[in-house]
Specification:
heterodimer; A: mainly alpha; 9 helices; 77% helix; B: alpha/beta; Rossmann fold; Alpha-Beta Plaits; 2 domains; 36% helix; elongated
Chain lengths: 239, 303
């Protein structure tokens, strides 16, 4: 991996104010779990709404959206990407460095709270399952949002539309869409790894299928992003 | 190293931004001159591999620049947009460029580039604290760090104070003298005149003139000039002006006053006060009407 690009990307991400947006949601998630547990609620009662309804449905995709569009989209917006592109680097190296940063940061801000929530629920197995699911979801979402940054001028809007409309709305109405929903892959991975009575969720995709689909989505959008970056155009401003 | 454009056009839907431009850039400094919106940036971006030509070929040393990242080992670009990673210092920024070029000694290359643009004193401050000219020089240092054979700069003198401008001009001139192929765009004739021997003039997406700047300069200064004049007696002044050799034609309009076409700017402006004096007419207003750069360029296109 190209460490120079990764370190500039990381500094750019942390240097921007929108990075502060990454903190409240995971903290809120963690706080809710702690509160539910402290108030004496049974884990099997509060994990479905907090972990699945909030964690996987909102916090994970929104965090990945902020990070995934932040690592590339903001450099496209402000034009600094040109400095990276005027180097004799394979475009694959640039995308992979950006993807690695997006994946690592998303996993950090979603996987760690999810892991702790698993522990609060009283199951080490659940904690591991949630961490693995957050990591897999982070990878797939990061690849998707990275590619979106190169496919549209409004990656945040399109990304939100995918998360809210496709995964959120259609996912509840049409069961078939679960095979094209990163959220469903993450929930299934968590469920199958944890196999925990503390999280009574019945995922309908098997573990190998969910993992394979997450991987396919990640690879496909990464390949697409590399190809789009090769044809990256800068429109003339004075003409 | 040569940069070649063969019959290059670029269009966006129905809008033709660049129309059938062919040129060859040889080692030395070339100015890309044209009014704003003429297509200079589009041409530059096509040369730099940031736009696909709709038709024609853009070659650097015989290789296409589009979708071909290895060309950046030989090419440096300073774009017009002054976007830089503001959170980095100039040193970090130029060093990162050197590392991304995979240079064997990135520190030495970064130091040399920063010395070249005289930015060593401020190199440890964050770029966001710099003036526009300092940012520009930092960007030039980053573009020069790998000592490219071809350097493309889009409006490099924008935002620079006169001293920085002189320094940048000297830098470009030296690079050209050392056998680099340097192309810079500008909409200001004097800038091009001071740095480069050869000029490519682009007007409305077409290559309007190409070659030695002196000839183009002569074309520009020897063109007919149009003036509007208001005086105490337009008709009497008109009669006197028709006898003046540098005047090619006079129109009388009761509302606008006189419109005079002069074949030679200098001779006419020197003769007018004398004529007014001898005829006893007081000139109340003298306005050159076609001094905008656009009219100079459009004259060139017609020539």
């Amino acid at each position: 991996m190209n460490m120079t690009i990764a370190s500039i990307t990381l500094r750019g991400l942390f240097g921007r104010r929108r990075f502060l947006l990454l903190l409240p949601m995971p903290l809120m998630l963690l706080g809710l779990a702690w509160l539910a547990d402290a108030l004496g609620a049974a884990a099997e009662d509060w994990t479905p709404p907090i972990v699945v309804g909030l964690g996987f449905a909102v916090v994970l995709p929104v965090m990945a959206l902020i990070v995934g569009t932040g690592v590339l989209g903001s450099e496209i917006d402000d034009g600094t990407l040109v400095h990276v592109l005027t180097k004799p680097l394979p475009r694959r190296d640039i995308i992979l460095a950006k993807l690695a940063v997006a994946f690592a940061v998303s996993t950090l801000v979603t996987g760690v709270p999810m892991f702790l929530i698993g522990l609060i629920a009283g199951s080490g197995q659940l904690a591991l399952g949630l961490l693995a699911a957050a990591a897999a979801g982070s990878l797939a979402y990061s690849a998707l949002f990275l590619a979106l940054s190169l496919l549209t001028r409004r990656p945040v809007l399109v990304g939100l539309a995918y998360v809210l409309l496709w995964e959120g709305l259609l996912g509840n109405v049409l069961k078939g869409t679960r095979f094209l929903s990163i959220q469903q892959y993450a929930v299934s991975i968590a469920d199958h790894i944890a196999q925990s009575p503390q999280m009574p969720v019945h995922s309908s995709i098997s573990l190998p299928v969910a993992a394979a689909l997450a991987l396919v989505v990640s690879v496909a959008f990464t390949v697409l992003a590399v190809d789009r970056l090769r044809s990256f155009s800068v429109a003339g401003e004075t003409s | 190293m040569k940069v070649e454009l063969n019959g290059v056009s670029k269009w966006y839907g129905n809008l033709v931004a660049v129309n059938d431009v062919s040129m060859v850039l040889e080692p030395g400094v070339t100015g890309l001159l044209g009014p704003n919106g003429a297509g200079k940036t589009t041409v530059l971006h096509m040369m730099a591999g940031f736009l696909a030509p709709s038709r024609g070929r853009v070659l650097l040393d015989g290789e296409p620049t589009w979708r071909n990242p290895p060309v950046y080992a030989k090419l440096g670009l300073v774009s017009e947009r002054e976007a830089v990673h503001g959170f980095l210092t100039a040193w970090q920024f130029v060093l990162a460029s050197a590392k991304l070029h995979k240079l064997p000694q990135p520190e030495a290359a970064a130091r040399r580039a920063l010395e070249l643009v005289e930015m060593t004193d401020a190199q440890d401050r964050r770029i966001e604290t710099y003036s526009k000219g300092m940012r520009q020089r930092t960007r030039v240092a980053a573009a020069l760090v790998h000592d490219p054979a071809v350097l493309l700069l889009d409006e490099p003198f924008n935002g620079m104070d006169p001293r920085q401008r002189m320094h940048m001009m000297r830098l470009l001139h030296d690079m050209g003298a050392n056998g680099r192929t340097v192309l810079f765009s500008s909409h200001i004739l004097e800038e091009v005149e001071q740095v480069s021997g050869t000029v490519q003039v682009i007007v409305a997406g077409r290559l309007a003139a190409s070659g030695d700047y002196r000839g183009i300069r002569r074309l520009m200064t020897n063109r007919p000039h149009v003036f509007t004049i208001r005086s105490t007696d337009d008709r009497r002044l008109a009669v006197a002006l028709v006898n003046e050799a540098s005047v090619a034609g006079v129109d009388i309009d009761p509302a606008l006053g006189l419109t005079v076409r002069a074949s030679d700017y200098g001779t006419f402006t020197r003769a007018l006060p004398k004529i007014a004096l001898t005829t006893g007419v007081r000139v109340e207003q003298l306005l050159p009407t076609d001094e905008s750069l656009e009219s100079v360029f459009s004259y060139l296109v017609a020539a």
